[in-house]
């Protein structure tokens, strides 16, 4: 039997082919690769997954999940991807387009998915769009170099990997705008979890978790898919009812007593890539950043002169002053993410939570992003909790809180970051 050839395309922000990739991912494979017949292919991407999650939400049951009665939204990243891949393969496609398939996956799940895809590649053609070099599948035969939506040159994987990375230089951010006012009466210990345990449907998820986050500390929260990272974050930031019977103390008060969820949220800057989707109006960059002072997603109040000046200072710090009047959603992904960090940080909250903030970014963009987080941590009093699966080159957390799964739920291990 003739061996199938597999291809990869670089999809980073600097690739200049975003528009064409959108065509490819929306199912029009022929637009870029004329010898593919679009009707015979399927797309594996975050956007496709989101579409299923949305449909689930509407219908109250899942079309692709194994546990049909449970919403896909509550699945861990690894579980969601497995379910999507199984669903797509059942359609017997001739080719499979993979868009950054390893984002948000832990090491074991990446290894597992790679083995699965290797097997799939024996019978189905694979076209991988990658943003991180480390993600390229080992069985890829050729890298397609594109320009203006056309394949300009084809090189082998070995040739591509042998290319020396160009020295990543970019103007570094050196300082962070001052806080508009100080948060009063902030205690040394911002968050305290004391022997917190959580079960879902009698399945233990977290077992006796104790963790203290103090002023100004920089933490990385790690653990394999499904180990309970999002669950912990939802105890701190969200309104997970599971937090109430447990010893969860936020800013000195036991959760559920004292401050309302709303009051607590005012003291926490939060970022997750999903946040971008909340901005569906035509807000400009300036409006979006200044809205961080109003604790609202859009802009419902007219900001004052001082507030606008501070938002402009943040935009300038990010070297994006030329974008100030543009519509936020029209900007490239990295710029959107940096601006959302500015929005979360504009008040210098005591705590900043970042949930997988570099997913879908290319190597260079991720480096720029982590540089911003390092500066924020070094220059402000804000404590940072950064959730990520990747060993982010350049990120400088002080401590790691690692969730280690066990039969009785995950236990936590604290270490000083190397
Ligand atoms: N509402 C829910 N009902 C039942 N099970 C749930 C619910 N929410 C989460 N879970 C389960 O709890 C476990 C922990 O999920 P959680 O999302 O906290 O893990 P995670 O470490 O953040 O995973 P990932 O890295 O994949 O995002 C998973 O097995 C998940 O399926």
From TrEMBL:
Q: What is this protein called?
A: ATP-binding cassette domain-containing protein
> Which PROSITE patterns does UniProt cross-reference here?
ABC_TRANSPORTER_2 (PS50893)
Q: Does the keyword ATP-binding apply?
A: yes
The alphabetical list of record keywords is: ATP-binding, Nucleotide-binding, Transport
Q: Which residues form a coiled coil?
A: none
Task: Name the Gene3D superfamilies for this protein.
Answer: P-loop containing nucleotide triphosphate hydrolases (3.40.50.300)
Give start and end of each ABC transporter domain. Answer: 191-417
Organism encoding this protein: Autumnicola psychrophila
Q: Which InterPro entries match?
A: AAA+_ATPase, ABC_transporter-like_ATP-bd, ECF_ABC_transporter_ATP-bd, P-loop_NTPase
Q: Tell me, what is one Gene Ontology molecular-function annotation carried by this entry?
A: ATP binding
